Amino acid sequence: MELQSHEQVQLNNLDQDIAAANTKFSGLDYAPVGFFVLRQDFRVLFWNHCLTGWTQLSSQEIVGTDLRQQFPNINQPKYLVRLKQVFQGGFPAIFSPQLHQSVIPSILPNGQRCIQQTTVTAVPAASNQGFYALFAIQDVTNLTNRIQSYQAELRERKRAEAELQRSNAELEQFAYVASHDLREPLRMVTSFTQLLAQRYSNQLDDEANTIINFAVDGAARMQALIDDLLTFSRVGTQGNPFEVVDCKESLNLALSNLQILLQETQADITKAPLPIVMADPAQLVQLFQNLISNALKYRSERPLTVEIGSESQENHWLIWVRDNGIGIKPKYAERIFLIFQRLHTRQQYSGTGIGLAICKKIIERHGGRIWVESAPDQGAIFYFTLPKNNLRSDGGFLLTSLVKEDI
Ligand code: ADP
Prior knowledge:
Layout: H1 2-8, H2 14-25, E1 34-38, E2 44-47, H3 49-55, H4 59-62, H5 67-70, H6 77-89, E3 93-95, E4 116-124, E5 131-139, H7 141-200, H8 206-237, E6 243-246, H9 247-257, H10 259-265, E7 268-271, E8 274-279, H11 281-297, E9 305-312, E10 316-323, H12 355-365, E11 370-374, E12 380-387, E13 403-404
Parallel strand pairs: 7-9
Antiparallel strand pairs: 1-2, 1-5, 3-4, 4-5, 6-8, 8-13, 9-10, 10-12, 11-12
Helix pairs in contact: 7-8, 8-12, 9-11, 11-12
The structure holds adenosine-5'-diphosphate (ADP).
């Protein structure tokens, strides 16, 4: 179809055109890219060494012949339409490996099919007779293989991530159901052992009373652990949607919840300006409360000081709670964030070892990080980050560069 018009063009003498093309394009002879030049009648005017290597066709064999005889791929209408635009309009064309077969199919030394990216540039033909098509064919086999294996790796990573999320959600659900359903029978055990202790303590000997007391104590501890486990599992399953939260207000709420302890310990609290962020308000209060109550609990002999501060960093806010208490050996810095991990006995300090695990879970739900810097008797600084560019629930961006100075 379109070809007819190409062929009807009055063309110069072939030998002259070949000689002119050789002078013009000889610089491309040894390029590591396949180059050939085509005239409107599909006669090959130039063929470089790289193509000879790929096809075993020397330039003597192919120059002057009609390309379509050796490489019929080019006869497909999708190529012909684009080539007409090159020859007549001077427009460039790109035949990408994703959408096109190779124009010059070739096999690599390892037997693999060469994947080609072909760019066609229009260059003015001799004697102003339209354009020649200068084909540049790049071997993109390695690149394509690398991209494909990278994509496969990415797919596998996404699948593993989805699987991890699914199993985390399942575990969370399990912890929730188990702790929720265990509460009722445990309450029965606790109240009946307490009843037993109250009603029959004067009828039993000392040994029996000690045993009952152990049972009461054990049941009470188990109840505390299960309550904590339930709180922990609720962080992920029953959190509130994020909203604009002024950290100063969350901190003040946490401090007012700890009022009695604060008075008992006579802690000196220093509050630096804190940012406004996107967060679950109740969880932010819980976070501050857990960290500050630990600062109060793990105090030293020194008068207790607790400092809460923040710093703007590139993509997030850095917030810290610093105390001058007993501190932690650096080797325990990660362990203390695990559920039910404690560094002390119940006799030394009360607690179940869940406070920091809850903090970690809250912070991870908000897309941040939490860690501690400390040494024995040197106090502890608990740092956490909160992202600045959390999306609002209505899809808008929140400007989180605000710091409340008026504390
Ligand atoms: P709990 O206080 O119930 O033990 P947490 O998860 O809150 O549970 O803390 C885990 C452990 O981390 C504590 O047992 C304690 O040893 C250590 N810890 C936490 N906060 C501090 C702190 N501010 N100073 C020293 N040690 C701390």
